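From the shared-data thread, chain only:
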Amino acid sequence: MKTILCFGDSNTWGYNPENRQRFGPEERWTGILRNSLGEDYRVIEEGLNGRTTLWDDPIEGFKNGLDYLMPCLESHKPFDLITIMLGTNDLKCRFSVSAFDIAESVGVLVRQVQQSQAGPQENAPIPLLIAPPPLAKLKEFEEMFKGGSEKSQLFGKYYRKKALEMGCQFLDAAEYIQSSDLDGIHFEREEHRKLGEAVGKKIKQIFL
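Structure, as tokens:
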């Protein structure tokens, strides 16, 4: 049995933009992924609302993905593959970083995985870098993410370049899904389904 860790933010946690609650286990893209992969795979969900790549959030706190990544790997290892889908929260105005720098930041997480011994026989797990889709129509989050929409359009470009540079697997979520106009940030139920199926297909190709 192969073990997959899904490391991400509220869209991995399963935030429902319609009611601000959490999608059920079988509705979240991680649950769709689990069903898509079948009994030969185990999927561990590690999503946190507001998680950044490596920035300390001065308002929300406890959101730094880099700080939590290694303890998480040590706690749940061994993994065969780790999906990393982060960067949306880095778009918040309070961090003042470019799309290029966000891709560089997520590259630091990929490097941590590649240099870890969290895989079978103390080898490194395979990192699968997922570029989040661009922001949609922002409403209540408009001021918080001011300027973020334009930056998010560049995620696919810079994440792909970073993945090639680091020799890791890559998937551009924007090729399969879009963020919801309900809040501009999160995924609706159908998008979770499409993303889970797309990631499942990619993982099966990796392990062929």
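The two ends are 14 Å apart (CA to CA).
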